[in-house]
């Protein structure tokens, strides 16, 4: 089956600064994929490239089988885009804006919009300009879902939302996608939300993809190891040992390897660890383990 999103050899610069080099990834139909990365690694740049707002230095991206540089109006109508939770025409109330948007989308389905509005408990005469940031973001999501798109692209969807609205957003989106076999490509700086939502993660480092894996595999296999080591010891990072740190004889590092193999890797560096503890991780802790704290 052809992937919903396919990017091949994407290279991009801002001036002389390299953002990516030969970036390759695909997103399969029905998946919710989260793009994770530190500030400045190019998450929003990928969103802009996918939507044709930004032309990469080289390489190609395909959405629903079409080159993003020449998307037809018919294909664009199958894509729902949310940029940082914004919605235009804030002088409308929720009835007026739903009526306005419905005229532009032939497959408009008002039920998801009104179900979400009912959960918000806002009056039908309330203007968007008087709503909180969280409420406006929910309106934006409702309008996108009512378009009945095959692909949803959501950039920093949780920005400005308090914990209650973030949970509403995540829960409703997860229910909607599960019931309709949609595909979602999203970014967020709040990784706790992603853990509850995404099937797969792409973790960006500066200039490259560090990891593309199922969320479950990351949670099941990636571990933090803490142990004692001789004073003055240092541990070198390797392809198997991520971001080792030693402070006053207390060491920690991250790895996909089982504990016995981690111990063997450390012994190859000249000493034997003692009192080693293996710890399971949240997705946020795994992200820090893969990319580093700073």
Automatic annotation (TrEMBL):
Q: Which UniProt keywords apply?
A: ATP-binding, Nucleotide-binding
Checking Pfam families in the record gives: ABC_tran (PF00005)
- Say which domain of life the source belongs to: Bacteria
Q: Does the keyword Nucleotide-binding apply?
A: yes
> Any idea which GO molecular function terms this record carries?
ATP binding; ATP hydrolysis activity
Q: Start and end of every ABC transporter domain? A: 5-231
The protein's name is ABC-2 type transport system ATP-binding protein
């Amino acid at each position: 089956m052809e992937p919903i999103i396919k990017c091949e050899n994407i290279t991009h610069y801002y001036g002389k600064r390299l953002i990516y080099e030969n970036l390759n990834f695909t997103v399969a139909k029905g998946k919710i994929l989260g793009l994770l990365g530190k500030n400045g690694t190019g998450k929003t740049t990928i969103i802009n490239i996918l939507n044709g707002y930004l032309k990469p230095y080289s390489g190609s991206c395909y959405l629903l089988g079409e080159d993003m540089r020449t998307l037809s109006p018919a294909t664009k109508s199958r894509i729902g885009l949310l940029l940082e939770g914004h919605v235009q025409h804030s002088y409308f109330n929720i009835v007026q804006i739903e009526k306005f948007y419905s005229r532009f989308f032939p497959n408009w389905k008002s039920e998801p919009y009104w179900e979400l509005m009912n959960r918000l408990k806002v009056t039908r005469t309330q203007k968007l300009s008087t709503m909180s940031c969280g409420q406006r973001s929910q309106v934006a999501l409702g309008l996108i879902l009512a378009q009945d798109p095959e692909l949803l692209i959501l950039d920093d969807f949780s920005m400005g939302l308090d914990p209650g609205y973030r949970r509403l957003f995540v829960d409703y989106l997860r229910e909607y996608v599960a019931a309709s076999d949609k595909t979602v490509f999203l970014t967020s700086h709040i990784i706790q939300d992603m853990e509850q939502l995404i099937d797969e993660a792409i973790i960006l480092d500066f200039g490259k993809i560090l990891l593309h894996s199922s969320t479950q595999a990351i949670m099941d296999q990636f571990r933090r190891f803490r142990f004692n080591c001789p004073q003055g010891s240092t541990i070198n990072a390797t392809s198997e040992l991520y971001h080792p740190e030693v402070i006053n004889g207390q060491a920690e590092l991250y790895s996909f390897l089982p504990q016995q193999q981690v111990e063997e890797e450390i012994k190859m560096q000249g000493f034997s660890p003692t009192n080693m503890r293996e710890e399971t991780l949240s997705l946020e802790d795994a992200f820090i383990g893969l990319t580093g704290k700073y």
